[in-house]
Design goal:
The complex is a heterodimer of chains A (156) and B (287).
Chain A lengths: L6 H26 L3 H24 L7 H12 L7 H8 L4 H17 L2 H36 L4
Chain B lengths: L5 H4 L4 H6 L1 H17 L2 E5 L2 E5 L1 H14 L8 H28 L1 H6 L1 H7 L5 H12 L5 H6 L5 H11 L4 H31 L4 H8 L4 H14 L4 H45 L12
Antiparallel strand pairs in B: 1-2
Classes of the chains: A mainly alpha (156), B mainly alpha (287).
Chain lengths: 156, 287
Amino acid sequence: MEIDLSFKMVSEWIGILLIFSVMAAIGNYVGYQYPFVESLIGMFILCLISLVGLIVEKLLPFDNIPAIIYISLIGLFVALPWFPLADLIIYYTSKVDLISLTTVLLAYAGVAMGKDLGSFKKVGLRGIIVTFAVIFGTYLGSAVIAHIALAYTGMI
Amino acid sequence: MPIQNKYNSDMDDLGEACKDYKLHLTILFCIIISEYIGVIALDIAGVNIVLMPLLYSLVLAIAFYIVKPFTWINKTQSDESSAIMMLLVGPLLVKLAIASGQNLTIIFDVGLAILLEQLGNFGTIFIGLPIALLLGFKREAIGMTSSICREPQMAVVMDRYGFTSPETRGFFTVFLIGTVLGTPFISIMASVLAYVIPLHPYAYGMACGIGSASMNAAAVASLSAIYPQLSVQLEAFSGMANLIAMVTGMYVYIFAAVPLTEKLYDILEPIFAKFVKEEEINIEEEL
């Protein structure tokens, strides 16, 4: 099979992830008073693992496994107590607030949405209502079942 | 079957996007302002509504696109941003995964609940489908409401119904709206629901993991603002639920969610058709 991975592609990923790291570290400094350098190291770790996941997806011959799965599994693995660098990884990534990453993501989403503003108008309120109902239904359905399961197994 | 995922297809713009320093500086400006404002908790009639910085950064960025003096943010930057977003989901997922990995022992205690909780994702079918039919959607409703419409289901819906089918159109409508508006929506909804329907915080924590990294993060952050002493558990449970939802998402979707939605559609559609006047639904050209 043909491996669809070029040096150019990887260097572009690295470029974007570096920019993201600096931005997120500044965001963490402003919003959560985390030390800038420690946040930045934390971001580098998060980005490095993403990069490995992206590359692994290109190298392995399983077409239907998306990179997000590899990225998640690697992230899970390196934080397990018996992984030698786990303490270090956990320490530095704890200097990156989860929600601060979403703040950056949504800023790009806002610009990305710009060109779609017209279609948002056309799909209109009906599309938005259905989307919200979908999210609401998924969230509440899951929470109710989780609550019952937790109560049944005596965890709460 | 070759499965296209959004991760691969949208990345052509990245080379230019790297060098577009005006875009990045604008984004940085939005982030600094948003983080500086920080979390605002509004108390409206006893219901605590949590407003997150992500909401302000979204609004600010849209404003930069709309307001004319900022000419360096236009359609090109919009395309670049779409490509960048796909990449930024990665570190977010890693952060969630690390939260799960380091707390694996407490996750084992509640493992059964996290597994069963996945069934709750069918809640969208029972709540979403009737609402979509009521609003006059037809076959689109199947694509729209059979799942949360994220990446794991994308390939399936295109493969099963074809790229130009109404089902796929519906799917992408929810995908698009969910990407942008879903995240701020769930962050506010999570804080309101925690007060209106007081289920255990752990249950809501698991529910946050619905297979979308940004929605997961937003919902967990809202819950953590309400239950700061539980934030470690909430992040760990949601991260694990999210991972399971992503790994199993495609198969659950093929073998359970889609057949269930179609069955329910066949039952409900004739009933709703009597009430909802025939409307020409045309959302073709915009997607």
